[in-house]
Amino acid sequence: MTEPPVEPMTGQPLCTERFRVPMGDTDAAQIIYFGAPVRWAERLFTGYLADIGLPTSAVLASGRGMPAVDLHVTYHQPLRLDDEVRGELRVHRRSARSITWQCDFFKAGEAALAVRVLTTQVSVQLAGGRPVPVQLPAELVSELDKAACLTATGEPG
Prior knowledge:
Layout: E1 15-20, H1 36-51, H2 56-61, E2 64-65, E3 68-75, E4 84-94, E5 98-107, E6 113-122, E7 124-127, E8 130-133, H3 138-153
Antiparallel strand pairs: 1-4, 2-7, 3-6, 4-5, 5-6, 7-8
């Protein structure tokens, strides 16, 4: 039986990160290379997962995985070499077996969105060398439920 997706989370991000755009993330015009935000997004969501006790290495060692199955990047305004950037992580959509991370990147000090990355991952168990979809890790679901409660009420649930 398929469960309906949970509504997108709004309000406070699950985590934020600040950094400068390095030379290696730009093209000859010193504007970000189109693939750079994908790495930034991965750093946000894998960092969050590690912070809640689910580092990628431990997930893989347990015989599980969370491969990316869908990716969308939308560029709203350019980011350039040495720009200070603020990244924010939220959940865009969640079901019992998948999660879509929403990673928004802003030029520091500005409210206008520069880049949005949506990455969908599916929770899998490796069975006989083949990935089989399974429930999202309980630790992740618990942390997301706590964050949703905080977002909705402003206080711990």
